[in-house]
Amino acid sequence: MTASSRPGTTRLIRHAPGHSPGVFTSRTRPMSRYTAADIEPKWQQAWDEAGIFTATRDETKPKYYVLEMFPYPSGRIHMGHVRNYTMGDVISRYKSSCGFSVLHPMGWDAFGMPAENAAMAQGGHPGTWTYDNIKTMKGQMKPLGLSIDWSREFATCDPEYYGQQQAMFIDFMEKGLVYRKNATVNWDPVDMTVLANEQVIDGCGWRSGAPVERRDLTQWFFKISDYSGELLDALDGLDNWPEKVRTMQANWIGRSQGLQFSFERVDGSDGIEVYTTRPDTLMGASFVGISPDHPISKALEAENPEIAAQLVEMRKGGTTAEAIETAEKLGYDTGIRVKHPLNPDWELPVWIANFILMDYGTGAIFACPAHDQRDLDFCRKYDLPVKDTFLSLDDPKPVENEAFVPPKTEKVKWVDHFAGLDEATGEEAIEATVKFAEQAGWGKGVEQFRLRDWGLSRQRYWGCPIPVVHCDECGVVPEKKENLPVKLPEDVSFDVPGNPLDRHPTWRDCACPSCGKPAKRETDTMDTFVDSSWYYARFTSPHAATPTDLEEASYWMNVDQYIGGIEHAILHLLYSRFFARAMNICGHLPEKAREPFNALFTQGMVTHEMYVGSEKIEAGEDAETADGTPAKLVWHARPVYYYPEDVVRFEDSGKPMAFSKKDVEEEGLDPNDTSSLIRWWRAQDELDPSDEPKRLRVYPSAKMSKSKCNVVDPVNIIDAFGADTARWFVLSDSPPERDVEWTASGAEAAAKHLSRVFATAVKIADMDDADGNDEELLRAMHKAIHDVTMGIESFGFNAAIAKLYAYQNAVSKSKAGGKAQKLAMRTMAQLMSPMTPHLSEEIWSMLGGEGLVAQAAWPIADEAMLVEDTVTLPIQINGKRRAEISVPKDMAKDEVEKLALAEDAVVRALDGKAPKKVIVVPGRIVNVVV
RNA sequence: GCCCAAGUGGCGGAAUGGUAGACGCAGGGGAUUCAAAAUCCCCCGAUGGCAACAUCGUGUGAGUUCGAGUCUCACCUUGGGCACCA
Fold first, then answer.
1. Whole-model pTM above 0.90?
2. CA nearest A428: which of A406, A443, A408?
3. Cα–Cα distance measured from residue A88 to residue A69, given in angstroms and rounded to the nearest whole number
4. How far apart are CA A870 and CA A875, in angstroms?
5. pLDDT per position as a tens digit, A623-657
6. Is there contact between A369 and strand B, defined as CB under 7 Å from any strand atom?
7. Which pick of A99, A142, A371, A727 has the fewest CB atoms within 10 Å?
8. Is strand B less than 7 A from the beta carbon of A34?
9. What's the half-sphere exposure (Cβ side, CA atoms, 13 Å) at A777?
10. How many CB atoms lie within 10 A of CB A501?
11. Of A399, A418, A396, A398, nearest to A279 (Cα)?
């Protein structure tokens, strides 16, 4: 019945008439062995010719927009890209099979510093570097067979794109969403540019890593802080975002509720506004503190050199985490006195204190040392009074050198207060106090946010020019929209630091859009995060003459599934959420797109073992060591990283061993002969255990990085195994949100599996269409359909792949008739097609599938086939499995119970007594309690 | 310091409150081969036992439940985020 498998013989490959793109007929060499290099280009061409990835607006179908975070064109794709885009591709292809009209675009986040750095280092123009890189990377991505609509591709450095960004900037200006102000900014001394607060990490530039300096500059800002409350509240609705990302954004926006009020000055001049989240501790006030950058501090500084000197000292403090932790509290008594709002006879001193930030709240506070550690440290240092306002109920002792700061939900006893009960929680007391102050009219409850406006000016060349003009007569005027784009000049040099636009001989010169007189262009360009804040919207109409085409945007938005790295949890995603709102206000996006990403998935990294050896190096001849020995006699080791391909790796009793391939070959050993390698290594170990310079240390799971040499180039993998293997591997093994460790054996296992599937398909294609013995296989098929579908739907790609392994085992062992086997194998092709699209097409056509598998409707599992007629029920005794019985699936409960109680193990356990209780869960389990 | 997430074999990891360890890797045994590679088949948590089987077992300790990897509380460890934000 089953035709014998004859490897090496050619086979006829059938395909349905009428569904044959040209490439089908050109197929000349049916294969018996899986050769990705032959299969993959062929099907990519077939997809191209059929144009199946071109997104088309089809009002009769539901739409689905899949987006992966677009790449920076650094020059080469890496495994992280492969993993990211493969996940998106699985979703995209799956949704397409399910009947959705899918949009799956790709573009380039192309502005930014590296292009300028390259220009500085090796000459040339940043644009040339960027577009060359894009070409290379696109060339590397194409072989992956991604279902991307390349007709929508753009780079953010295309004038068509950034021109629309400029148009939108002008719209934002009109709506009051952009403004210019003089501000103390974060200046990166290496990149010679300004950074947003979000881009300063531990006091250092996010890109350069250099400690950030403070500078006063006139800068452009987006009014993102107007949306603090909305951006925070809307997080609750983002059910399909990772909890982690929502928490990070909520912390970043940082809402607090408090009381704002003014301390009247004893000398009658303007009062001092303060903000506090603990107004209930007002009776414990010790002094009023103002920031060194507070207007009062600045005024005093101008007239008093002693204060000026003190302030220089106070502002010095570093911004790094350790610096803040160890920073000493510094203060200066201004001599100013203010009145306590509840008792005009109670005077408080006003101190300038280095720990008070100007840009949070009002830049001024009242200090309650008993219940705030910072205030307490300050008061102890300058010998200011410390007064308890409440005590612990359990341990009511006054504060010494540790402030008493219980959770706001803990009930405490109040010793001095003016509103609320004698025993109350902090929360209750705060509420009562705010109410009291508002009624008395001296204060009001306010909401404060940590989020500040987004400074977007950058003093760089390779970015989107800010489309405004500075006119002596008219001031700052937006460029006319018909003059857009304001293009970057081509003739620039990077031989000196600073902004080439500033020193360009003519680029700045222009006519004032308002009065027509000679004027100067703005030379700042936009932060590159602006470019990535709306690209998802542009993809819906990438060639429109306006930023978006509202009709297209209304159809395609929102992004149904966004996929990217966790590193963008705050910056990019917060800015994009703001931009979507601003674009809605300007009419570029529909109301529903104010929250642009319906679902977000953050994928893990691809890691690889790291191989580290050491090299003994001689110190410089002139150097001397501490004890005076000439340095050239001193040896020390320097870590040396090895590329995986230069390493011979094997395991000795499960312990990973690695040696440099060069060393092994010099020893005259065969790198593939593990047993002699182990003998060699063990012998070496016994002879001279102290000297093992040749053995490399193996560190697992390090993020792939060029400097650590633990990179695997996707191009090499595709050359060696094919795209389908690379795709299959990055999805298997680890859950997508976690890191996946790239291992050579894992990649080989993936390749082997695909070969097995192919071989099974070849064998089945040769069978005749006989019936018989089909039941078991059909059940396995429907179970696979069910399980794989569930896996994809829930982002459990690794689980879906495991089910496909199991299904392959079932199919290859099946004794069913040819007809059933062919159906089973076609279904295999369909279920695998989101992950391994090329191999799936090959198998599909080999087995007479109609058209392209990429266009076939996703199979639906028959529920009836998922339930077995007879089930194996485990029998538990007191919750421990002790036996099992096989029964018809719908056997009555008491029948099952009778059978269970007759089991040997149960009889033994009962020892003649009656069971206390018997639980029968139909089709699941029986538990006997004795 | 505050907030969040995760701890399961030698390894990556599966498990709607219902047979813990699916699937893969590594390892062991066998078939095929002159031999090897490739391929195919079997075994593979720990302890005891020739075996049937028994006992233990999902970071630690308690709890809820007929039944807990899964739910609750406390703790430990690791990873991540925030942090002089009043």
1. no
2. A408
3. 10
4. 15
5. 444 455 444 444 455 677 888 778 877 766 556 67
6. no
7. A99
8. no
9. 24
10. 21
11. A418
